[in-house]
Each structure stands twice: as C-alpha cells, then as structure tokens.
Amino acid sequence: MNSRDPMTRGMGRRGILKYTAVGAMGIGASAFAQKSAFAASTAVDGDSARHLEQLYGDALDEGGKLVVWAGGSSPQQEARTREAFVTAFPGIDAVFTVRYSPVQSALVNRQLALGGLEPDLVQLQTLYDFDRWKAQNALLPYRPPGAKAVFPQYRDPDDAYIGIAVRSFGRVSNSALLSDAEAPRDASDFLAPAFRDRIVISDPTAEDAILFAFHLVTQKYGLRFMEQFMEQRPLIVANAGATTASLVSGQRTATLAHIASLAPVPGQPLRYVVPRTDPFMSWPQTVAILRKARHPAAAKLYVAWQMSVERQSAGLQWPTRRDVAPATGWKPITQYNSRLNGFREFLRDRAEVEHYRALIKTFVAP
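^ thats the sequence. predicted structure below, dont judge the formating
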C-alpha cells in the first residue's frame, strides 16, 4: 500500500487505521476501531459507522486510490470535495478529473468499448447515460446507508446509480446592486426595461441543463419570449463560471438560469431565488460505480460518504435524502415548482432535445 503521508508511508491498513486522525469529522484514530468518523454525528447509526469503517479498510487494502470523473465546467470545481474526502479518510489518494458531462460520457463509452478504463466512478449531469450503462451491464450495483431515504426519482431501483445532491437553475442576481424587491424571479420580470443590457446567461445551446431551463420557460410563455428576451441584449457567455464572474464583478446584474448556494456565501454578492410561479429546473447530481472499476471499495466509500447525513446537510443546495433538512429558511425541494424527474425525462428523448436546441440556436446564434 502506498501513502503520500511520510508518517504513514510503509504502514499497512491496520497501521494507518491506528495512526490516522479523521480530522474532518473530529474522531481520533485511537477510536476508529470502535467508531467510524461518522459516528460523531448523531444522525449516523452504528451500522452505518461500521459499514464505512469496513469500506475504509478495504479501500486501503486495495491500494488506497480513487479515480472520479465528474461533470463540470471548471477543472477545479471538485477541489473542495476532494480535500474533504481525503481529509476524512487519510491514506486514500483521490484524483478528480472534471470535464463537461457529455465529454466525460463519450470518453467512458470509448474506454468501455476499447478497454483501459480509467475512472472508478462517474458523477455526471447526463442522466440518460446511467440507464444506458445499466442496460449494458457496465455499472456495479451498490446500496449505501441512507439510500432508502433518498427520493425514489433520484435513485435506480436496482441500485445501479444514485443522486448525491440536488442542483437547480434558479434566478441569480447581484445582491449588492439589486434589492430583494428588485431581483427578478419569474422569466417575465427579465423583460422589464430596467434589465436591458443587464442580463447575463450561459449559452442555452451549449449543454442540456441550461437548454432545459429555457425549455420550461418557453413551454409557459411560448417562443415569443425568446424574441423579447433577445431584445434585452443579454450577454451570452460560454459557461457557468463566466456567468458567475459577470455577476460578481457587477458587469451584469441578473441571470435567468444559474446555480448558486441557497445560503449566502460571505463576501460573494450572489442571491439565489426560485421563481414565484414559473417552473424551474432541478436535477440529482448522480454517481455510479463502474463494474470494471480498479478500486471498487474506494468508490463505495466515496458514495457512502456523500450519502451521509453530514455531507447531505452541507451541500450547496438541497439534499437528495428526505430525512435531511435543507439550508435554514428553505423548504424541501418537493415544496417548490420543480418536477423531480423532469430533467431526466427531457434528456431521454434525444431527438426532441436536438430539435429544441436547433430551434433555440436560431435566436441566440445570430
């Protein structure tokens, strides 16, 4: 077993379990044989703690490695997740590679066909891929502790994949430049004269999530909305990172569909709100372990960790578990106007997705 920690290099599994301190959860290694790090949380029962302890030991025995391919627009998007995971489980060397979800899925398909599979686990937005990989018998079924508490729409009934966090595109504005009363909520609010030259939006034809957000809007308001929206001269940028940068800098003040923390982040003037009456898009950030994974125990450990009450409580937006409360002041996702399975159903009809993408491109491409 290899360890990057000079104090543990050369130690076996039992040596590391005896030496390490699981700092992120506040449990010392001397107690690890009796309790996992998660036993510090009153929401984790003894069976869950023992399950995590066993997986941790097995992950060390299989080499202490984990390779995650995650969907996202920034290479550093999962840096905090990685840091939290390796802090919680010393001796596990986790490598996260972030690319756009369609790129990741295409590379997985290539490696499944040709061999040389690199990732142990995929964490993607392209929800239709998981059903296809399941049908190909490419996924390793696993039911982590807490899975029964997950909304049925967010997990596979045969445990091939599971949603670890709810993400959504609501309305986001610069709280330093717009008061709560001025912040737009429904799509029709963005058509007010005050928002001419003040809107930023990620290219709705670039990826499926933002495309679906516009699909929901035009279902309610019709395609005439796109004409009126483009007359507002929105700044169309490449990705979510550029949208955030434009809002934080004050270059633009609001966006129709974007992700941000439910709880305000100190020093970041971003306000996230859900629409008053419009439907809005949400989806489960979904993970699956590949059947040919080289480090299946480490992959299971990661999934179980993400499904713990502590991790579910600390998410950017909503938890996928029904028994975990969202951020203070927010109701469960089921009490807002967002269909739990709406995005997945949209994605499954690829012909309709591409038809709608081509239609929207006629508005934004010119």
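The first helix runs from residue 13 to 19.
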